[in-house]
Design brief:
By secondary structure, this protein is α+β, with helices and mostly antiparallel strands. It has 2 helices and 2 strands, in the order H-E-E-H. Helices cover 30% and strands 14% of the residues.
Length: 74
């Protein structure tokens, strides 16, 4: 990408829209951690971190239990 061209805008949702998407991701993933299959302590994880140009989008989110989520960031 040329340094003279503006960077494309990332998708970052407001709180209400993110909560709705969060719910959709949990439903899409069958209310299970996609790493270990747990049904407890579910969180939604950004596959590509927001700090690395990740987006609040269905393609970039996955359901993980708190333990697997911690491991991903570990």
């Amino acid at each position: 990408m040329s340094p003279l061209l503006p960077k494309p805008r990332r998708i970052r949702l407001d709180g209400e829209a993110y909560q709705k998407l969060h719910q959709q991701i949990l439903e899409r993933d069958g209310w299970r951690c996609q790493a270990c299959g747990s049904l407890r302590g579910l969180e939604v994880h950004h596959i590509q971190r927001m700090s690395h140009q990740g987006e609040d989008s269905e393609e970039n989110l996955i359901s993980l239990c708190s333990e697997c989520h911690r491991t991903m960031h570990g």
